[in-house]
Specification:
Layout (H helix, E strand, L loop, with lengths): L4 E5 L4 H12 L3 E8 L5 H14 L3 E6 L6 E3 L4 E2 L2 H11 L6 E4 L13 H14 L4 E4 L7 H10 L22 H10 L9
Parallel strand pairs: 1-2, 1-6, 2-3, 6-7
Antiparallel strand pairs: 4-5
Helix pairs in contact: 1-5, 5-6
Length: 195
């Protein structure tokens, strides 16, 4: 019953970009949701999600939140309840009678809302709140960034058209957690003809 429809939370980063070919290969009917919560680099994220939705010919809905959500830690840009908020909005805006809410969340010990306990609780809440009609799916939860990068390469995702710098700099700051993780993951991979 859940295998037909997928609403993908698309952020413009490499992890969520990989969800598009992942679900398309499995025959899902897909739409995407991008949330503007006034995050740094939102204009670069928006450009990335526009590209990805065109590239994979997927409907994209954009939703803006008027009031900024609160930063807990400005150094690593951890927001209070960000993934809880995004997943809740996806459930509230779910466009199908049944299906999956899909997120590129990977296990990251730096953030509670990228941990196993959070995901298990969200699985249960989404299923219960929807009377079993909607499920949360996190297919890359146990992937490393290297695994994601290889998957992206195999599926011809243009790394240069994705965006994930948490500091919001146009070409990435090269110093934040996201930029460093990405840089380390793509070392040694042939991307766009380069080693």
């Amino acid at each position: 019953m859940h295998k037909n429809n997928a609403l993908i939370l698309l952020s413009g980063g490499l992890d969520s970009a990989c969800l598009l070919p992942y679900y398309l290969e499995r025959g899902f009917n897909i739409s995407c949701l991008w949330i503007n919560y006034n995050q740094p680099g939102k204009e670069y994220e928006e450009k990335a999600v526009d590209y990805l939705s065109r590239r994979f010919r997927i409907d994209l809905v954009k939703q803006a939140i008027e009031k900024d959500i609160v930063l807990r830690n400005k150094e690593n840009m951890e927001y209070f309840g960000r993934n809880l908020l995004l997943i809740s909005l996806a459930l509230s805006m779910f466009p199908y009678n049944h299906g999956l809410i899909c997120t590129g969340i990977r296990y990251t010990p730096n953030y509670y809302d990228c941990g196993e306990q959070f995901i298990l609780e969200m699985f249960r809440l989404i299923e219960d709140l929807s009377n079993g009609l909607v499920l949360l799916d996190t297919p890359f939860f146990n992937y490393s960034k290297k695994n994601i990068s290889i998957f992206a390469l195999e599926h011809n995702i243009d790394f240069n058209k994705t965006y994930s710098c948490i500091k919001g700099q146009s070409n990435g700051c090269g110093r934040c957690i996201s930029c460093l993780e990405r840089e380390n993951a793509i070392k040694g991979l042939k991307i766009n003809g380069n080693d």
